[in-house]
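Q: What would this chain look like folded?
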Amino acid sequence: MKLSILMPVYNEEARLGEALKQALAVDYPCETELVVVNDGSSDGTADILNSCDDPRLQAFHHAKNAGKGAAIRTAVESATGDYMVILDADLEYDPKDIPKLLEPVLDGRAKVVYGNRSFGGHAAFSFWYVMGNKGVTLFANIMFNSYIGDLETCFKLMPLELYRSLNIKSKGFGMEAEATGKLLRRKIRPYEVPISYTARTREEGKKITAMDGIEALLILTRERFRPVPKQRTAA
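A: My prediction, written as structure tokens:
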């Protein structure tokens, strides 16, 4: 089994070097590759990526900023693994948790695994940020009659071909809701494992906003009521 770790990056000069170091230092239980997409950064992100000579790393560059979903789409098109997981470059998630996500897959218990953030202690920068996350997740559970704990988690591990088949169109943070909504429409319930999480503040570069939460609700509603495609039958 080969795992593709997909890292979208936008103006993360201050954190990218450490993020790459941490991701490449983990003792993974399988072969890995790190696919990084510089999404039109205007800082020193490109220089940092170009200076990294680890053979496991592939770097791609967007001429203009197109959003997280677009960056992941580029990474997915270039990845060569059997499975994929997304790892942001902002140091909020710990790549040491990725082997925990792999365990249920490697022992045959699951195909799709989400990392579930507890939001305890220093794991959130504001009350409303946590409530927004919980509200979007609750909405998805009601709409799809499911019970998942963290829809917006970055740590979504699944077969690469499954993600490709979802045909994610959202260019920005809406990709998180679209991916989950499409999985739930297919009756695929993610297996969840607890992960560590340390949120940064707006001053430290936090990018997601309340408008992203509203977009997530609209996307989930669209996916819930979109007609199920008819299955083709052989002639």
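The radius of gyration is 17 Å.
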